[in-house]
Amino acid sequence: MNQYTLKNKIFQVAIKKAGAELCSFKSLKTDIEYLWKADPEVWPAHAPNLFPIIGCLKEGSFLYQGKEYACPKHGFIRKNKNISLLEKTENSLSFGLKYDADTLKVYPFKFEFQIKFILEGNKLTVVHKVVNHGDNSMLFSLGGHPGFTCPIHDEEEYSDYYLEFDKPETAPTWEVLENGLIGRETRPAFDGPRKIKLHPQIFNKDALVFKNLNSSKVSLKSKRSNQVISMQFDDFPYLGIWAKPNSPYVCIEPWLGIADSEDSNRDFTEKEGVLSLEPKKIFSASYCIIINEFKK
């Protein structure tokens, strides 16, 4: 099978085997598809899984123990066709990928990556598990990249939507350079203590990139309709907000890690946000997507 589904009385979700990518989050009550449709003319993805790096590497590679490794942007899980279905239950699907000769060429660690999707009512929990099968500490980052349809309704405009955070925020967004690296400059992003208003030009300078937010939850809301898409990201200290400029979707991206900065020395052991996992240990981190369809 190329695609698997989970379903309850409220929602149905679908996950592609390739990349273990969430590709649908649909209401069975309203028939609304909340996940971006992966239009190849705009952005041909739904919700890629990012591992073992986030974003771009300076000069396209990192240095580790005297060797250079050309790991692709956002890692090699997304679109990976070697991912296996590990388990399917009534409300969950689990997938996994283990290191092999090909991965060791671009990432020198004996990893095992697992991802589990759990559908409970109106909440989808995405659980990441990383196992270090090696004899040395393993360095990695991981994250999510789900895109959501915006606007949801034909009569709405992109500018009807805004992002509302659960706590007051003053964090700036860090500039993203043309080469995808994180620059030195920051700029204000919030239109109030908790709100970022969307508009067609908001991503003209690429993603909004946040470090050390106070919030662990952000919601996509509209001034003209009552659906609310929320992302709960307690385990993730970085957050990206992105879309192609003037496109009808928005990605809310919880990250454990970040793209290289323009000042990076490319040493993987010193990479900002990189995590270290001891030999034979297991790491776990989760985020949740919650959809509320309130009555008018």
3D architecture notes:
This protein has a single domain (about 5-295), classed as Distorted Sandwich (Beta-galactosidase, Chain A, domain 5), CATH 2.70.98. It has a 9-stranded antiparallel β-sheet with strand order 7-8-9-10-24-20-19-14-17, with no helix packed on it. Strands 4, 12, 13, 18, 21 and 22 form a 6-stranded antiparallel β-sheet that branches. A 3-stranded antiparallel β-sheet has the order 1-2-3, with no helix packed on it. The model has no long low-confidence stretch (mean pLDDT about 95). The protein has one helix at about 100-105, and strands spanning about 5, 10-15, 20-25, 50, 60-65, 65-70, 85-90, 90-100, 110-120, 125-130, 140, 140-145, 145-150, 160-165, 175, 180-185, 195, 210, 215-220, 225-230, 240, 250-255, 275, 280-295. With about 300 residues, it is mainly β. It has 1 helix and 24 strands. About 35% of the residues are buried.
SS strand fraction: 35-45%
What is the C-alpha radius of gyration, as a whole number of Å? 19 Å
User: What is the tally of beta strands?
Assistant: 24
Sheet of most strands = 9 strands, antiparallel
Level-2 CATH architecture = Distorted Sandwich
Question: What is the averaged pLDDT score?
Answer: 96
- The end-to-end span amounts to 40 Å
Gross morphology: globular
Task: Look up the CATH topology.
Answer: Beta-galactosidase, Chain A, domain 5
